[in-house]
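Hey, resending since the last one bounced:
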Amino acid sequence: MSKGRVIFIAGPTAAGKSGAALALAERLGGEIVNADAMQVYGDLRVVTARPSTRDEARAPHHLYGVVDGAERCSAGRWARMAAPVVEEIGARGRAAIIVGGTGLYFRALEEGLSPIPEIAPDIRDRAKRRRDELGPEAFRREVIARDGEMARLPAGDAQRLIRAWEVFEATGETLSAFQALPRAPMIAGPAERIVIEPPREALYAQCEVRAAAMLSAGAIEEVARLRQRGLDGDLPVMKALGVPEISSFLSGDMDQDACLAALQQSTRRFAKRQLTWFRNQAPDWPRVENAGRAVAFFSVDDG
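The structure tokens again:
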């Protein structure tokens, strides 16, 4: 038995993380916790490559499909959901296997969160309207006038600039001031970590297979149902990998072959960005090339 081990399995899309987590959960008697920013949403099982219902029956899975697409799930919100789940798994004497491609989620759990108060939705809406009124460049200048540390952000980084604006508006304190405050880890003890990092060409080939499989497994119908909800196009779920490409197909802007090509390209680019993040932000995490080696990396601890 694993006796409360906490294991992080990270890496780019299509690297085999979910398969590794499931095999490891069966081997250790563990439970799987999602750390993928899009797999938290209930609307997109196929598009986000969430574990199948059959896989979910093989081991306990947590935080998959638990957020409605009309909501936003930040790293902070996820960490506040994940921390008690990890604690409960440990209390059962089982391994918590946290798996996903969203590096900020792992960081939030392991390093803690800045103590920023909850921001009312109406203030967030005002921030978005303000950016629309001023335009990206003028909005950035307004944010920098309030919080000079935000000068490091380009005008196109709408999400972080809006966050800085709304925090100051709601609290009178700068986002950078909150970020400078001490943080406390949200899990007890060190985590065992690994990044699955296949060779670049092999990963890209897996990305292309993933994209094709997505389309044949019902992704088009899934996005069609999502579009019928009439959600704000700025919501994270509407920007999930695959949704813009399939939406263009459904709108008649491209045929299915062009949709597939666009989706394959987007998937490769997304994987490349994830690789870059983990190489820059988690350089000390051990690396393996595939799921099998990831499973073998973690020995069974019967002590």
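Residues 167 and 246 are 34 Å apart (CA to CA).

Sorry for the duplicate.
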